[in-house]
Structure formats: C-alpha cells, structure tokens
TrEMBL record:
Protein name: Beta-N-acetylhexosaminidase
Lineage top rank: taxon: Bacteria
Active site: E328
GO molecular function: beta-N-acetylhexosaminidase activity
Domain annotation Glycoside hydrolase family 20 catalytic: ranges: 167-483
Pfam families, A to Z: Glyco_hydro_20, Glyco_hydro_20b, Laminin_G_3
Source species taxonomy: Bacteria, Pseudomonadati, Bacteroidota, Chitinophagia, Chitinophagales
Species of provenance: Paraflavitalea soli
Signal peptide: 1-21
PANTHER family referenced in this protein's UniProt entry, alphabetically: BETA-N-ACETYLHEXOSAMINIDASE (PTHR43678:SF1), PUTATIVE (AFU_ORTHOLOGUE AFUA_2G00640)-RELATED (PTHR43678)
One of the protein's GO biological processes: carbohydrate metabolic process
Family: Belongs to the glycosyl hydrolase 20 family.
Length: 690
C-alpha cells in the first residue's frame, strides 16, 4: 500500500514538472551541457544544449583587423587538427564567419579578459576572443582536448567558457647537461607542454656527474655542455649537442606554441665542462667542478661564452630571459660568489635580457651587493634562499621546491615519480618549502618542476624520463593554471586524465589502443636473409605494459649484433655484441639476457616490459627478469642500472643488420601477460621450416 501511494506521488510530480517545463518553453529532453573535462580545468563555464560539429568544410577565420597576429594561431591550430585523428587540414581565411566556422578575434582593451585568458563561445560558430594572441592559442588547446575525448573527434559541447591562468610562469626544468635529449625530443616537448598550457621550458644546458662514480677523478668524471660553441670548440659535448641553428629553430617553434625557452648556462659550480675545455679556470681548492673566482681568466672565458649566444642583431638566445645558474658554490667564497653573480646579471642585462638564477644568497651571505631589481630566482630550497628575505631584497621568484617537485630518476632520493596525489590535493605555487604566500602575491611569478639526471650512465632513456614527467605534467598544469581551485577529486581527475595524450601527432608514451589487448599480429612465417631484410609495420614501438611474443628459427652463422626488431628507439638482437646471446640496445646502453637462441630449430620467445624492467620467457617459462641491477664501483658506491625496453616495432628485421632465419606467429599485446596466457602462446610453434 505504501508503494502504491509513492507511485501515485511520483506520477503527480512528473506531471507537475512537465507542466512547468512547458510553461518555460523548455522540453524535458533539453539538457544543459556540463563543463567539458580539460587539463587545466576551465575557470568558468556556462553550459548550453547540443553540440557544435566540426564538419569537413569548416573554416578557421581570423578577424581582418588582427590578421597578422591571429593567422599564425590559426595555422598552428590547423596543423594540430591535421596531425590528430581527423588527418585533415582546414581552410584558413580572414573575414566574417559563417555557421560551422571557428572565428578568432582580439579585444586588446577588454580588461574583463585577463592576461593569457580567453572567452570561448560555442554555438553555431565557435568564437575565440582574447586580449592577446597567446590567449587565442590556449583556447585552441582546450578545443583539441575536447575533440580528443570524442570518438568521432568532431563534437564540442555548446556553451561559453572564460578561462585564464592563476600564475604567469608554468614551467618545467630539464637537465640536458647530464643526459642528452635529442632536438626532436625537445621539439615534441614544446608541443606537449603547450597542449597543457605549460608555457616555460627551462633547459639546463651544462652539468657534470659526481666524481665518486668516476673513480674519484675529475679528469674521468662525465661533463657536458650541449650547445655548439665557436670560441671554445672543445667545450661542446661530443656525445650529443645542439647546433645554433637547431636551437634557434627550437625557440621559434616554441614561440608559435606559446612556450618560452629559457636557456641556462650554469656557473660557477656544476662547471666541469668549462674547466675541461680551459683547465686553468678550475678551482684547485674546491674541485674542478667549481670555477676559480680569483682568476681573471675565469671571467674572460665565461664572458665570451655568454657573449657568443647574446650579441649581435640575431642572437642565439632569442627569448627575453636567460638563466645564469649560480647554485651550490662553496659558502667559504661567499663574497667572490656574490661578485661573480652580480657581474653576470649585469652582463646579460647589457644585452637586453632579463636574468634568472638559482636562489643561493641566504647560503652565500655577505656584504657584496647583488642586483635584485627585475631579477628572478628559482626558489628551490629555503636554506639556500629564504623566499621572504629575498622578496624583501626585491627579487621575485619561481616556486621550485625540491621537496615537492624534483624528479631524480632511479637515484634513491628526492622522487623517482612525483607524488601526484599529494601535489593535486595539497600544493600550489604559493607554497615554497615551509613558507606560504597569498596566491595573488605578484612576486611569486609561478612554479616549475624539474628532472635532474644526477646519476650519469644509469641507463635512463628519453622514454623513461617521459614516463615520469607525463603524469606530473598533467597534474601540475592544473595546479599552475588553476591554483588552489580543485573542482573535482583527485581520483576522478586521474581517471579522466587517461583519456588525454601528449597532443596531436604525439605518442611518446607508446600507447596503442584497440578493441582488445592484441594490437598487432603477423601470423605467417617471415623469412629474413640478413643485411637489408625487413618488413615495416604500422607501429614504431609500444610503451611500458606490453607483451611481444614470436616463434623464431635462426639460421647458422648469424653475425654479432644480428637484429630481430628495430626502430629509432631501440633494437632487439639475436646476438648482443660478441656474447652470442639474446639482448637489446637503446640510447647507447646494451643489455644481454642469459640465453642463447638455438639455431636450426623453432623456439618460442615472449618479452614483457614495464617501467621497472624487462622479462624474457622461453617456450612459456620465465628465463630471466632484468630489473634492479646495480653498477658497483671500486670505492663501494652503487648506482641503479635501469633495464627497461620500449619495444621497437617499426621494422621486423632491419634495413642494415637483419638476422638470417625465420620469424612467425608474432603477436603484440598492450598489456603484460603472465602464467597460463604466456604458456598458451608458446604452444603455437611451427612444426616445420616450410
């Protein structure tokens, strides 16, 4: 009886709601669109109903009054749309929009649109309004993320967004000195950062390893300076560097994506690359990674290095800011250090640039004045530079607290992976160590997280670094744009964030999606004849969390380094170097399994890999797991040995060094198989060589 009364009441309520809806001319089927999920989150959203559909004939239309500055934004957006799943370029025009178009315009005097902000109105036309071109660019990043999450890559919910950043500097610091990153990687990172509205890419261009890992000998300790240098040709690293032309083009690309490249030349500590090029400027007291600050030649050399990149009408460093390092020098030489710091602030400013430097003046207290006006510090450790005291002196800063934001891969200190849950729930750039400032404090310019490759030679690759950076970039993009505003719980953010990648045309994570876990299969038997013998697959490689299985029948007399699978990222070899055993190589590191594949008979091989290591199964049985290895040094020091493999799939075989033999039943899965599933794969072995 109670149930019947409730049912009647429900019917009455529905009729009442329906009647009211008719009075308001709003049909029951009408729904207001919730804010679309993007990273960083939209600051304000007013939903409408229905979707804008990006049709093939849509045009990207720039307001003629601002065409010179808006057409580059439209061109970048068009290139990204073409690189994305649609694989289609859109016409770019100036004039008035028609239904179905995307329209760009500026309102330079409209103070209701904040700096870097934009107003995005999605109706019959998508209208992007901003005070400056970069705001319009950020609007396109939001649109691209919405499109990425749509199965047809065409639907955008109608409504209006007003969006703007809490902090002006939203940065990432990459240590290129102790680990080389290719120029292609840096170019991809510019686009990746832009996709998440991260606008400040700080490149640490020189550094050195710890001499304890190199026999306690400075002469054998690794050091590198990554830029082409004509004044001191011996300064440029031989194992990886950037030409001036490449570096200029990188900065120009970054500009087109709203990203600023901030180059750092780190002196007077972390400076072994300079003292190896000019030994006379090394400190005999504090070690050759310290410059001798009492030697006039030191100033001559470092002056010339900076001048080479700053002078002339077309300098190599084209941006507004240059980082001069100034970190972790012996405090016993505080006065000399302060004089050195002041000298390079003024030298760089003399070329029309603003200066950044590491905060170190609490550590290096003294009487020698150091210029503060218009100088920015990276506040990384309050014991080295107390932010409150630095503000009182007139410095502004970028929040870079080591206890929150330092990734040091596989080193055993700081973070191997950042604690993204803790960052999401508790940190914002106004929190610097044990000091918290108002979010609106103008002296806190923003934040930056960092990757430091302290342990030179530990086997870390570009792919490994990116695997650590990617989840941090997503979380910190939100925290640096939105500040303390967390509109959804971390777990919800985490789940939704998995729908987003690195940006159109990028797949540095090596994610391969499919209806089931099998993403590639080659069922036939492939005969390879050595040398230039291969087939090319549609996949370049697969990232961590994979299984690759195949049957193999090697011929006799395969040479050393005979290749089974290859790509620009790695090679898998039948015979690693001169060992005769199965192995793989990537980025100059060679790894060997304790297994030799028998010749002239079929075997079944399964390789699985994650971000920790790589496993080999032979005929369904685990043979070896490469994980947790150590480099052990004569002085008792140990360094982790990273044994990961981003599996290469561009070629089965190789254009130059393919093995001789047969491969069959090749299967690639985007998950790690174990136990019975691996054993089942091993049962399918050809019974003849055909």
């Amino acid at each position: 009886m109670i149930g019947r009364k409730l049912s009647i009441l429900n019917i009455f309520l529905l009729l009442t709601i329906g009647s009211q809806a008719q009075k308001n001319s709003q049909p029951l089927s009408s729904a207001v669109n919730p804010a679309p999920f993007v990273i960083p989150a939209l600051r304000e959203w007013s939903g409408a109903s229905g979707n804008f559909v990006l049709h093939n004939k849509a045009r990207l239309v720039a307001d003629p009054a601002f065409a010179p500055v808006l057409l580059p934004v439209a061109n970048t957006f068009s290139a990204d749309l073409k690189a994305g799943p649609l694989r289609q370029a859109f016409a770019i025009k100036t004039g008035k929009p028609r239904p179905g178009d995307v329209y760009f315009t500026l309102h330079p005097e409209d103070t209701t649109i904040k700096k870097e902000g934009y107003r995005l109105t999605i109706g019959e036309v998508i209208t992007i309004e901003a005070r400056e071109p970069v705001g319009a660019l950020w609007a396109t990043r939001s649109l691209l993320q919405v499109l990425e999450q749509d199965s047809a890559y065409r639907h955008i919910p109608r409504g209006q967004a007003i969006d703007y950043p809490q902090y002006a500097v939203r940065g990432f610091v990459l240590d290129c000195g102790r680990k080389f990153f290719s120029i292609d990687f840096l170019r991809q990172y510019v686009q990746f950062m832009s996709y998440y509205k991260m606008n400040d890419f700080h490149l640490h261009l020189n550094d050195n390893g710890f001499k304890d890992f190199f026999g306690g000998n400075w002469d054998s300790t690794y050091a590198a300076f990554r830029l082409e240098n004509n004044t001191y040709p011996g300064l440029t690293a031989k194992d990886g560097s950037y030409t001036k032309k490449e570096f200029i083009e990188l900065q120009q690309l970054a500009r087109s994506y709203g990203v600023t490249i901030v180059p750092e030349i780190d002196v007077p500590a972390h400076s072994l690359a300079f003292t190896k090029a000019v030994p006379a400027i090394g400190s005999k007291t504090y070690g050759m990674d310290h410059l001798d600050l009492d030697n006039p030649l030191t100033y001559t050399v470092i002056d010339q290095v900076f001048k080479e990149y700053l002078e002339g009408p077309n300098p190599v460093f084209i941006g507004k800011e240059v980082h001069i390092g100034t970190d972790e020098y012996s405090k016993k030489e505080a006065e000399q250090f302060r004089a050195f710091t002041d000298h390079y602030i003024r030298l760089v400013e003399g070329y029309g640039k603003k200066v950044r430097m590491w905060g170190a003046l609490t550590h290096a207290q003294g009487k020698t004045p150091v210029k503060a006006e218009n100088v920015t510090m990276n506040w990384w450790y309050n014991g080295y530079a107390d932010p409150k005291k630095m503000m009182e002196l007139g410095y502004d800063g970028i929040s870079t607290p080591d206890g929150w934001l330092y990734i040091v891969p596989a080193a055993g200190y700081y973070y191997d992976y950042l604690n993204t849950k803790r960052l999401y729930e508790k940190w914002t750039p106004n929190m610097i160590g044990d000091q918290t400032f108002p979010e609106s404090d103008p002296l806190v310019r923003g934040g930056a997280f960092a990757v430091w490759n302290d342990h030179v030679g530990n086997g870390i690759t570009e792919k490994d670094v990116h695997h650590r950076v990617f989840p941090a970039m997503q979380v910190l993009a939100k925290k640096m744009w939105n500040g303390a505003d967390s509109s959804i719980p971390y777990q919800t953010f985490l789940e939704k964030s998995k729908q987003l990648g690195e940006g159109p045309g990028l797949n540095m994570m090596g994610r391969i999606h499919s209806k089931d876990s099998l993403v590639y299969s080659y069922k036939n038997i492939l005969r390879l004849k050595g040398g230039n013998s291969f087939i090319q697959t549609p996949l370049q490689g697969i990232g961590y969390g994979y299984t690759v299985a195949f049957s193999i029948y090697p011929g006799e007399d395969n040479p050393d380094n005979a290749v089974l699978f290859s790509s620009p990222d790695a090679v898998v070899k039948l015979k690693q170097l001169s060992t005769g055993r199965l192995g793989f190589s990537r980025e100059g590191y060679d790894y060997t399994f304790d297994y030799t594949v028998p010749v002239k008979q079929w075997s079944h091989i399964t390789i699985t890999g994650d971000h920790k290591g790589t496993s080999l199964y032979v005929n369904g049985v685990l043979k070896e797991r490469l994980e947790g290895g150590k480099h052990r040094f004569a002085n008792g020091k140990e360094m982790a040995k990273v044994q990961t493999l981003f599996f290469p799939l561009q070629y089965i075989g190789d254009p130059q060094h393919a093995f001789t033999g047969r491969l069959g039943n090749i299967k690639v899965f985007n998950c790690i198989l174990t136990g019975d599933k691996i054993n089942a794969l091993a049962q399918v072995i050809p019974n003849s060589i055909h």
